């Protein structure tokens, strides 16, 4: 699903974000990417959905070599991915239903498909009753659930999450993680960058730790391992 061979990322200012990363993430895995601030976690995530390109090495995502893609091919790569951010990134002038439906409209799903699929994923995240609400009418946790619904509505094979519980209280964070766990149990690969020690230690999933741009730990049922 995701394979990095000798991947490095050096930004234009000379900052080394990642250095000689070798990792393979298989279908159906749930992987936490952890490490101190500035270690390279977000760059790792951004490379996977091609917001950034590797400076060196090969990165294959869902059978496609990311570095070889032409710009017009990138949307097709991203159709197989669901992406969840810390700051939700919902469209403020659209309801919860419309935010989720928009992701299907982008890939030219039919009106009938949208009408069938959107209520289903709103059910999955427990917010069908908030379908007509706008983001400003919802709590942070509710907005993140809508963001997750939007990320999974097109049945992606991989869901990428960058600090999805960073703005949430501990109780809400656990509710969000239960949703991610349910998605993973249905066969979707999850790759999540996080600083949330409680979540990582409680979930006991695979943990990839990055320090000073390099992988220093890769454990099948790992713990967070840092005191932030």
TrEMBL record:
Location in the cell: Cell membrane
ABC transporter domain residues: 2-227
GO-annotated cellular components: plasma membrane
UniProt keyword annotations, A-Z: ATP-binding, Cell cycle, Cell division, Cell membrane, Membrane, Nucleotide-binding
This protein's record includes keyword Cell membrane: yes
Entry keyword Cell division: yes
Top-level lineage group: Bacteria
Cited SUPFAM superfamilies: P-loop containing nucleoside triphosphate hydrolases
Membrane topology: Peripheral membrane protein
GO molecular function: ATP binding; ATP hydrolysis activity; transmembrane transporter activity
InterPro entries linked to this entry: AAA+_ATPase, ABC_transporter-like_ATP-bd, ABC_transporter-like_CS, ABC_transpr_LolD-like, Cell_div_FtsE, P-loop_NTPase
Principal cellular location given in the protein's record: membrane
One GO term of the biological process aspect: cell division
Family: Belongs to the ABC transporter superfamily.
Assembly description: Homodimer. Forms a membrane-associated complex with FtsX.
Job description of the protein: Part of the ABC transporter FtsEX involved in cellular division.
Protein name according to UniProt: Cell division ATP-binding protein FtsE
Organism encoding this protein: Propionispora vibrioides
